[in-house]
Design goal:
about 65% helix, alpha+beta, 2 domains
Length: about 130
């Protein structure tokens, strides 16, 4: 989770840098442009620091290098899915499983002439 937060912060700061650069380029007053350029340099330095911190954080999203270990993890996950499917009272464990599978599940409603229907879809979670 910490890794994802850093990635999100980096993305937001990169977008902010673009906006700041645009403001500096469009500034009419030299003093204002100089102030905006100072802010740009500070943000750029902060971005560098965040990128260094991100590099130091291990990513949990990378799969294990050993194919046997990957197969074992997949079989364990399959067993968990089968247990949850067989137990009607296992709904409390679904969020944990969704997190392991990196899935988001949502409901989409559409109106028809006779009645409303519900369709569902499973989408991969954004990184």
């Amino acid at each position: 989770m910490h890794y994802r937060k850093h990635r999100r912060d980096i993305h937001q700061l990169e977008e902010q840098l673009k906006r700041t650069a645009h403001k500096a380029a469009s500034a009419q007053d030299d003093d204002l442009r100089a102030e905006i350029e100072k802010i740009y340099k500070q943000e750029k330095q902060q971005l560098g620091t965040l990128k260094q911190q991100l590099a130091a954080i291990p990513s949990n999203s990378s799969p294990p290098a050993d194919p046997e270990q990957q197969a074992t993890q997949a079989l364990v996950l399959l067993d968990q899915i089968q247990c949850l499917a067989a137990d009607p009272g296992a709904q409390q464990h679904l969020p944990e499983l969704s997190k392991k599978l990196n899935l988001r599940v949502g409901l989409f409603f559409k109106e028809e002439q006779r009645a409303s229907t519900v369709s569902s879809a499973a989408l991969p979670a954004a990184s």
